[in-house]
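Please decode residue identities from the backbone states below.
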């Protein structure tokens, strides 16, 4: 699935790829992208843009909810969410992430990504 920028030609023409234009913000476009899929790997996001508190609730939380709803409706077997350990707050070698969903991370990016994790695991 791609949104604005088409996939590179070598990827788009691979035997196991079916490029589909869709928009996570428009649920009506998602069935064509997820129907018949065995696995969805989601790592879309908007990084390093100013004022993330203005858009991350929508892009990380609501748009992922749209994708997850479409995937569940299409009975996709597996949804893989690429996240990062900082959703649990500050981590280090001495205090690594533990997979807990009850944390309160500092950044809006981590808070909204943790909410995605909660949605995904809550639907499984």
């Amino acid at each position: 699935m791609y949104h604005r920028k088409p996939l590179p030609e070598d990827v788009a023409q691979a035997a196991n790829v079916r490029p589909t234009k869709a928009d996570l913000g428009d649920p009506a476009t998602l069935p064509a992208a997820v129907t018949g899929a065995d696995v969805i790997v989601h790592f879309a996001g908007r990084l390093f843009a100013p004022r993330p508190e203005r858009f991350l609730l929508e892009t990380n939380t609501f748009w992922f909810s749209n994708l997850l709803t479409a995937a569940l409706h299409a009975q996709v077997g597996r949804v893989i969410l690429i996240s990062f350990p900082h959703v649990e707050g500050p981590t280090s070698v001495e205090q690594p992430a533990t997979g807990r969903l009850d944390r309160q991370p500092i950044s809006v990016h981590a808070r909204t990504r943790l909410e995605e994790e909660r949605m995904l695991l809550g639907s499984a």
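Observation: The first helix runs from residue 9 to 12.
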